Amino acid sequence: MNKQSRIFVAGHRGMVGSALVRRLVAAGYTNVVTRTRLELDLMDQAAVNRFFEAEKIDVVLLAAARVGGIFANASRPGEFIYENLVIETNVIHAAYRAQVERLVFFGSSCIYPKQCPQPIREEYLLTSSLEPTNDAYAIAKIAGLKLCEAYNCEYNTQYVSLMPTNLYGPNDNYDLKSSHVLPALLRKAHEAKLNGADTLTVWGSGTPRREFLHVDDLAAATLFVLENNVMEGLFNVGVGEDLSIRELAECICKVVGFDGELVFDASKPDGTPRKLLDVSRLAQMGWRATIGLEQGIASTYREFVESYAGSPTAAAVQ
Ligand code: GDP
């Protein structure tokens, strides 16, 4: 890979894809290729094949996916399994057919079993059952990484899979029904502060533990993998530390400046009790996350206020 390589970022409007584009451009890559959904429907295999035949892509960053938080995953498992299976199958197979040598596939830490020993090592994959609130999504992502492994084995491709922990940062989804916990609580705390509310509702018991990675750190890890010629394998990407949802809510309230009380809504699911990644595989190669949680939440909050909360359409950030 060099600075002139043609790098296709699939899903460039999403949180991960847009962070990848920012990072590539900042690092001096001059041929970053993107397509909107209207220009190229990744669910249409014939269209994806035509795109790869025409564009002479050198590297694919496969960040296009149907993603969402615990409620969206649990209530729309059909969409999550079908769309992710189709997108990854279409893109990975078309890339192989067009002799694209390098590809990075992005999954999620929810691919690992619910009752995994912690921190979670890559080799715990498929050692016991999945967390039911997101097993459809997890199965699709496991299929994607297995596709990469199988193609590497049979066709000598160099396809790598990165499994980030819970992500946050610019261009996140702030819709309360489909978002993940961090953007949801950021928005709730902001609105509670503006409305002078006394309380903020947190779903579940507040005891599950989660690990949060700023998406710019994921983009940095991706460039690290590409520039250091990591050719295959599965790599966890995280910070190596977690905290409880209660602690996360407290940290967000502090950053936002909301000093009301937290109320826990036990009718909402907790999901998996803990998912802390073991990040030593990438660390041994020389990569570590650098953005601290409070610092990352503060910059994300500034971006939220500028991009969403102040705009006329912000009343309904969908
Ligand atoms: P998960 O990591 O796949 O379980 O996905 P989420 O980020 O959606 O949820 C993580 C944890 O945060 C779960 O235990 C949720 O119940 C909890 N949580 C607390 N408040 C919220 C909220 O307002 N939205 C979401 N999505 N999760 C919340």
Automatic annotation (TrEMBL):
Its annotated pathway? Nucleotide-sugar biosynthesis; GDP-L-fucose biosynthesis via de novo pathway; GDP-L-fucose from GDP-alpha-D-mannose: step 2/2
Entry binding sites for NADP(+): G11, H12, R13, G14, M15, V16, G17, K141, P164, T165, N166, L167, H180
Q: Which Pfam families match?
A: Epimerase
List keywords of the entry alphabetically: Isomerase, Multifunctional enzyme, NADP, Oxidoreductase
Q: Identify the InterPro entries for this entry.
A: Epimerase_deHydtase, GDP_fucose/colitose_synth, NAD(P)-bd_dom_sf
Q: Where's the active site on this chain?
A: Y137
User: At what residues does the UniProt record annotate the site feature described as Important for catalytic activity?
Assistant: S108, C110
Q: Which reaction does it catalyse?
A: GDP-beta-L-fucose + NADP(+) = GDP-4-dehydro-alpha-D-rhamnose + NADPH + H(+)
Binding of substrate occurs at K188, W203, R210, D270
Q: Name one GO molecular function term.
A: NADP+ binding
Which EC number(s) does the record attach to this protein? 1.1.1.271
Which PANTHER family does its entry note?
A: GDP-L-FUCOSE SYNTHASE
Family per similarity comment: Belongs to the NAD(P)-dependent epimerase/dehydratase family. Fucose synthase subfamily.
The cross-references to HAMAP family, in alphabetical order and at most eight, read: GDP_fucose_synth
Its annotated function is as follows: Catalyzes the two-step NADP-dependent conversion of GDP-4-dehydro-6-deoxy-D-mannose to GDP-fucose, involving an epimerase and a reductase reaction.
Q: What is this protein called?
A: GDP-L-fucose synthase
According to its UniProt entry, this protein's organism is Paraburkholderia graminis (strain ATCC 700544 / DSM 17151 / LMG 18924 / NCIMB 13744 / C4D1M)
